[in-house]
Each structure stands twice: as C-alpha cells, then as structure tokens.
Amino acid sequence: MTPVELLIRRLGTAGDGIAETPEGPVYVARALPGERITARMTGRDRAEPEAILDPSPERTAPPCRHFGEGCGGCATQHWAQAPSIAWKEARLAEALTRAGFADPILLPAAVTPPGRRRRADLAVRRDGPAIRLGFHRRGEGAVLDLLECAVLDPALVSLLPALREALRRLPALKREASAVLNLLHTGPDLLLRTDGVPDASARAALAEFARAHGMPRIAWAKGEGAPENAAQLGPVSLKVGGVAVAPPPGAFLQASPEGEAAIIAAVLAGLPEKLPAKARIADLYAGIGTLSFPLAGRGMVAAYEGAAAAVTALDGGARASGLRVKAARRDLARQPLLVPELSPFAAVVLDPPFAGAAAQMPLLARAKVPRVIYVSCNPAALSRDAAVLAAAGYRLVSARLVDQFLWSAQIEAVAVFAR
Questions:
Q1: Going by fewer Cβ within 10 Å, which terminus of the chain is more open, N or C?
Q2: Beta pairing class for 107-111 and 395-403
Q3: How far, in Å, CA of 162 to CA of 166, rounded?
Q4: Do 271 and 373 lie in a common domain?
C-alpha cells in the first residue's frame, strides 16, 4: 500500500498520535504532536509510521529495543519525560473538570524512576519447541518474547531466561499460559496459570527451579481456577505500609515501592488536620492493607475488601502488628456500604478497580462523610464518580498525579474531596 503523509495533531488516551483526515481520525503508534510523517495504513483508522519527515523537538531515543517492535508494555518511550508528565496531568485535570470541579490545581507529580516496577503479568505461548514469554504486542494477541525491559526491576528481568527454559520443559503448558511475577521482600513470587495439570515430576521440577532462584513459593492454577501451592520452600512476606503481610499468589501490589510511598503520602496528607484519637476511617477496596496500615496511625480503620485471600493477608498483618485495623470481606460492587454504615466515618478512602466505584458513590455522597480520598487508576471512572461528589456539594481539596506506570498511557492519581 502506498504510504500516506500525515500531520499529527494531538495524542489519544492510549498514547497514539492522531491525524485528522477527510475520512476521519487516524491513530498512529509512536508518533508525537506536531510531527509530519509518512505512514502505512494497517486498518480503517490505524497506521504504522514509516518515516518522520518533521520530528518533534520532544522526541527522544527509546531506552528499550522492544519499543520499536510493538511491545504493548509501553506507549511513550519516544517522548521526553516533562511533556509526557504534562500530558498526563492535563488528562487528570480534564477528568476533574468534567466532573464539575472547575480549574483544578494539581500538586507536583510523583514520578517513578525506570527499573522499579515490581510486578509483571506476562503472557506465555508455546511455539513448537520454543516458548514466548513477555507482553502482548500493541493491539494484537501475539506475544513478544521479552529479552530486556526498562520498566521492570532487574531482579525480575534476570529471572526471565531461566523461567522461559523451565516453561519449555513443563508438560502442563500445552499451548498458552500466564505468569504473574511479584517481587516480595522474601524474593520473587510466581503464579503460573496453565492449560494443563502438572504431575508430580513437574511439581518437583518447579520446586527445584524455586530453590535455584531464591523463590520461596511457586503457585499454580489451571486457567482461571483457584491457585494452589505447587512449591513452597519458605514463608512469603511483603511490607506494605510498614507492616509485614503474607500476600496470596498473584496478589495486586502497587506497581513500585516509590509509587506506593507517594500514594500513601498523598492519602495521609488528604486527611483532616485534626482528627480525634478515636476517629473512624474506612478503607474501601483495601486489598492486602497498603493504605489500611498507614491510616491506622491516624484513627481506627475499618478495611473492606472483596477477595477472600487478600482479606486473610490483611487481617493477619493487622493482628500481628497490633494496629487498629478491622478487616471485613465485602464485595462493594454487589453490596456497597449503606448510608448508616458510612455516616460515622470521619474519612473514607477508596482505591477501586479500573471500573471505579459506581455502586458505592451515590451512597457515599448521601452519607455526607466530611472527607473522601479517591485513589484512581482510570480518569474516566474518576470523572464519573467524582461528579457524584460534586453534585452533593463536595469541593476538590487537592489532586496529585502518581506516575508509577512509566512510559505508559495509564494514569494513577489521588484526589481529595471535602464537604
């Protein structure tokens, strides 16, 4: 197909450059605003750049070889950090403005450095005698075999060649699998989801792999089933909010230690300055207690979480530390806290999943809780949920971008609302 010449006007929410044509917008990966390029159309509204005729002064050399190969792990490695952060801040401000908070002023962004991401959710595919282990290609189901990564902690990257070889020899991997790696304080923790069942010899091989690489646990599940321990050589532990917990296999963690610390700091700074010693604070979607434990230094915390294994980890950490945290299992999408349950709290902190907290927000607004602190990983959900607070008379106290998803289009933020 004959290349077309395009002028990139702006960036879309996925980090693609957008060119306006008579047929409509065209999305171009790895292109920047202001650039004039030639591109090859790959679909009705998609194109791949072939040559950059007028490069942006903000363009920079990507630090990872896989970026140019279409790795789906990153979207903006070709963009200088300052304009990239400004773009994310503008998207956060726009989301809050749409919610009804005019001209929001953002606190300085907290930016995670390269090589600090401690969690990887990797795809695995058997291709004849070889194994592909890595992230999916952008917009495709194909798996890009990961040989290096500028985002992940080097301790996880260094494990990949040996893991690839171990998976190649694993009969329980017939065609496709996934591997979730979490870097805990006790070492790397692995959850394998395969399309077959490991026999006794395969489990012994996994145990030997764990021993060779300082991994106290390897868990396994078939498909989306419940995980079980395939090899446990010692206890697992991670300090969250200063408290040691035993995370379940594949547990959700904040992406980096720096990102976690920035979120905790923003949440604590968002609390009312003067709280009585017996003030009650709710932590909704509490996970394994990342925010519950720091909050316990400011009041009595009621932590609500829907995943049973996470509640067990949270409760165990609370009991061992003696902190004022009471954990309860509750699916807040199906059974949100009611107005009488919410009203006694001096502050409610919530860190919902990507879809947000649509079921909980109207009840939270009606409860007239003095302070609401919302940790968001989705500007669209934040805008929708914050609009409920704006309609109920809340004002925006502060908002801060936490850029722990380096070189991606994803946005993490902490927004503080008060009545």
A1: N
A2: parallel
A3: 6
A4: yes
User: Looking at the domain assignment, is residue 69 inside a domain?
Assistant: no
- Please state the three-class secondary structure of the chain as a single string: CCCEEEEEEEECCCCCEEEEECCEEEEECCCCCCCEEEEEECCCCEEEEEEEEECCCCECCCCCCCHHHCECCCCCCCECHHHHHHHHHHHHHHHHHHHCCCCCCCEEEEECCCCCECEEEEEEEEECCEEEEECEECCCCCECCCCCCCCECHHHHCCHHHHHHHHHCCCCCCCEEEEEEEEECCEEEEEEEECCCCCHHHHHHHHHHHHHCCCCEEEEEECCCCCEEEEECCCCCEEECCEEECCCCCCCCCCCHHHHHHHHHHHHHHCCCCCCCCCEEEEECCCCCCCHHHHCCCCEEEEEECCHHHHHHHHHHHHHHCCCEEEEECCCCCCCCCHHHHCCCCEEEECCCCCCCCCCHHHHHHHCCCEEEEEECCHHHHHHHHHHHHHCCCEEEEEEEEECCCCCCCCEEEEEEEC
Residues 126 and 226 in one domain: yes
For 194-253, how does the pLDDT look when each residue is reduced to its tens digit (9 = 90+)? 999 999 999 999 999 999 999 999 999 999 999 999 999 999 999 998 899 999 999 999
Of the three residues 188, 204, 235, the one that is the final residue of a domain is 235
Yes or no: say if 109 and 89 are a contact pair by the CB < 8 Å rule: yes
Q: Say if 412 falls within a structural domain.
A: yes
Residue 1 has pLDDT above 80, yes or no: no
User: What CATH number is given to the structural domain containing 10?
Assistant: 2.40.50.140
Q: What is the pLDDT of residues 92-125, one digit of tens each?
A: 999 999 999 999 999 999 999 999 999 999 999 9
Q: What is the pLDDT of residue 140?
A: 80
pLDDT at 67: 95
Record the tokens describing residue 131, joined without a space.
Answer: 């194994």
Do 379 and 407 fall within a single domain? yes
Does 81 carry a binding-site annotation? no
Residue 272: CATH number of its domain: 3.40.50.150
Work out the average pLDDT over 349-361. Answer: 98
285 is annotated as contributing to ligand binding = yes
Q: Is 148 known to sit in a ligand binding site?
A: no
Residues 300, 382 share a domain: yes
Residues 107 and 50 in one domain: no
- Residues 40 and 97 grouped into a single domain: no
Catalytic residue annotation: 377
Query: Does the predicted model carry a pTM greater than 0.85?
Result: yes
Tell me, what's the pLDDT at 139?
Answer: 79
